[in-house]
Amino acid sequence: MIGDEQIVLFQLYRSGLNVEMKRVGESLYTGLNSMAVKEGEHLLKNILDKGIAHAREQGVIERINAKWLGEMLPSAPIKWREYWPHALIIIIGALWVVAWNLRLRHLVRRKTDELRLAASVFRNAHDAIMLTNEQGNILDVNAAFTRTTGYEAAEVLNQPSALLKHLFDTQRDNSPQATLANDGVWQGEIWEKRKNGERYPIQLTLSLVKDTATRSTHFVIVFTDISRQKEYESRLQHLAYFDRLTDLPNREGFTQRLTQIMQEARESQHSVMLAYLDLDGFKEINDRYDHSLGDQVLRVVAERLRSTLKNNDIVARLGGDEFVMVLPHQPCDLEMQRVIQQLIQRVNQPIRFKQCELQISASVGVAAYDGNEDIEPDQFIRQADHAMYQAKQLGKNRYHLFDLAHERAVRGHHQSIARMQQALADDEFVLFYQPKINMRNGNIIGVEALIRWQHPEQGLLPPAMFLPEIQQHPFAIALGEWVVNSALQQCSDWKANGIHWPVSVNIDGIHLQHPHFTQWLSDTLDTFPDYAPGDLEIEALESSALDDMQGVADIMRQCQTLGVNFALDDFGTGYSTLAYLRYLPARILKIDRSFVLNMLDNEEDLVMLKGVLSLADAFQRRVIAEGVETTAHAKALLAMGCEYGQGYAFARPMPASQLLEWKTHFTLTEGTTAHRSP
Question: Based on the domain organization, do 546 and 635 belong to the same domain?
Answer without folding.
Answer: yes
